[in-house]
Amino acid sequence: MKQIDAAEMKSYEGQELGVSEWFQIDQARINAFADATLDHQFIHVNEEMAKQTPFGGTIAHGYLTVSLLPYLQTSIDGLIIPKGLKMGMNYGFDKLRFMAPVKVNSRVRAKAKLISAEERKPGQWLLKFEYTIEIEGESKPAVVAEWLLMYFV
Predict the structure, then answer these.
(1) Structure pTM?
(2) Which residues make Cβ contacts (< 8 Å) with residue 26, sequence separation at least 6?
(3) Quick check: 97 and 145 in contact, CB under 8 A?
(4) DSSP summary character for residue 103
(5) Mean pLDDT calculated for residue range 112-139
């Protein structure tokens, strides 16, 4: 991550900030997410039944893939963070699309682009990022999202 003066954040609008490291989504993680969310649909947790689907096996929950964004962004070298950051807060999504399923044992990574940076109040910056979660070896991404983060400086 790159620390910059808060006033410099606007100069990064429209810029690609980099990609994260690859992260593998295995069946144990899918099962744990199913337990945490009570979403035990067979396509996620029943390996035998999922083999009969067009995917040929289990797939990760879309929300599991999205929930990895906070972790994935930590390994993006070019991600900007304002100097003196006191706290960052998830502010929601303006857009969230699930483009392709993530098959069990696939590896994913996040690509970040800063869309906008706006100082809402003194010391409160709302940043809108475009995140694309790519699947290794696949031409279509798993997720495209416009993620809002509020930074308190």
Answers:
(1) 0.93
(2) 104, 105
(3) yes
(4) B
(5) 97
The SS3 assignment for 51 reads: coil
SS3 of residue 143 by DSSP: strand
Separation between Cα atoms, residue 126 and residue 120, nearest integer Å: 7
Six token digits for residue 143: 């997720």
Q: What distance in Å separates the CA atoms of residue 31 and residue 111, rounded to the nearest whole number?
A: 26
Burial class (CB in 10 A: 0-12, 13-18, 19+), 52: exposed
What sign does the dihedral 110-104-92-82 (CA atoms) show? Answer: negative
- What residue type is assigned to position 113 of the chain? K
C-alpha distances (whole Å) from 74 to each of 19, 78, 120 are 10, 10, 24
pLDDT digits (tens, 9 = 90+) for 46-99: 999 999 999 999 999 999 999 999 999 999 999 999 999 999 999 999 999 999
Q: Can you tell me whether residue 85 is helix, strand or coil?
A: coil
Please give the Cα distance from 143 to 131 (Å, whole number). 8
How far is C-alpha 53 from the chain's CA centre? Answer: 26
CA-atom Rg of the chain in angstroms: 17
Distance, C-alpha 125 to centroid of its chain: 20
Residue matched to tokens 């993680």 = 29
